[in-house]
Amino acid sequence: MPETVEIRGHCDPRFEGVRETFSAAFERGDEVGASVCVVVEGETVVELWAGFADKERTRPWQRDTLVNVYSSTKGITAIAAHRLADRGLLDLDAPVADYWPEFAAAGKEQLPVRYLLSHQAGLAALRKPLAKDAIYDWDAMVGALAAEEPWWQPGAAHGYHALTFGWLVGELIRRLSGQSVGAVVREEIAEPLGAEFHIGCGPELDPRIANLILGPIHAPEDGSGYDLMQAIRDDPQGLIALAYTNPTVIDPESSANSRAWRAAEIPAANGHTNAASLARIYAALAEGGELDGVRLLSREAIDLARSEQCTGEDQVLPLPTRLSLGFFLPTDGEPLGPNPRAFGHGGAGGSLGVADPENRLALGYVMNHMHQGKWLVDPRARALLDAAYADLAAC
């Protein structure tokens, strides 16, 4: 039920539109718990949080509440890979097999690294049935992917690698850095910026982690919505079905709220963070790669990371996508504000991280009430981003 909630945090008076938009979502009953942060020219102008961290509404959402952000994790994993390329350790045009010899199986000897980041590798799903708990077994997942045959000629099409992106890109990070993806993200990206982003975490963080809650499925009145479960039933051994069910991630309330999920490293889907941390990481990119003396990437690396690699029909998602090297790019139907060169990544249920270097703006939005619809950017996140740009234009 819609209810009056206390909006906590701070908001620069120039960005009151963001506060009003955030508050309105709670008033409509669209949120249970959420936080939003906007950084402009390196300054945090909005950091707000409200609501509850649990379905029973007994745990108030706090400033340091963390939540699983699903595919918003991919953008942070991509940053970790681009840091290796920026240092000359990873050549995006080299064959993956140069760094991961076992990957050469099934005709993938020449498949270049960039195809892993741009979702063009044709490895969006695994055909061989996997054990239910294989999703928590790094070696099992990377071994299966190394042996897998692409579903399409690599580079000839693109399709969202919903889960496999994390193990594909993550194994390169692990082999080149000598550390797990979670350790690299924590030690090289989050902690130097004073942020939190956990890919794999211990039980000591559980009291601060919000539980995900299944929310509404939004179907357009014209009947043009997309029923993922029906698509899976229609072709249970097809690409789309196996991308989400082998191993399964269909039931987030039982899987993503479990200790096993939180403990594992699933670099496409199980990052835990808050809006302020997500915005701060993207703010470093919006500031040309450096924030408060901490450099994540060079300007050249950022421009490479956001360079368009493919656009058009997606082999997995039910709508056209435009992809760079690890990030979604704006489309006519789904802009990320007024700048066509902005880039970022959203996650199932609604989370979003965005960087706009031209306007020196970054936004992070996280929530626990998961909405589903035929979109790449949740309408709640889009409304907050639109409000931030409107307020910026009025400054």
Walkthrough of the structure:
This protein is α+β, with helices and mostly antiparallel strands and 395 residues long. The protein has one domain (8-76, 185-394): Beta-lactamase (3-Layer(aba) Sandwich), CATH 3.40.710. The chain is 31% helix and 16% strand. It has 13 helices and 15 strands. The strands form 5 sheets. Strands 1-3-2-14-13-12 form a 6-stranded antiparallel β-sheet, sandwiched between helices. It starts with 7 loop residues before the first strand and ends with a helix. The model has no long low-confidence stretch (mean pLDDT 95).
Strand content: 15-25%
Tally of alpha and pi helices? 13
> Helical content, roughly?
25-40%
Strand order across the biggest sheet?
A: 1-3-2-14-13-12
* CATH-assigned homologous superfamily: DD-peptidase/beta-lactamase superfamily
Q: Can you summarize the main beta sheet?
A: 6 strands, antiparallel
Task: Give the CATH architecture.
Answer: 3-Layer(aba) Sandwich
Radius of gyration: 20 Å
Mean pLDDT: 95
What is the number of beta strands? 15
- Unreliable spans are none
Q: In CATH's first tier, which class applies?
A: Alpha Beta
- Report the span from N to C terminus: 36 Å
Note the overall shape.
globular
- Main structural class: alpha+beta
Number of domain modules: 1
Helix and strand sequence? EHEEEHHHHHEEHHHHEHEEHEEEEEEH
- CATH topology call: Beta-lactamase
Summarize the structure.
The chain is 31% helix and 16% strand. With 395 residues, it is α+β, with helices and mostly antiparallel strands. The longest helix has 16 residues, at 379-394.
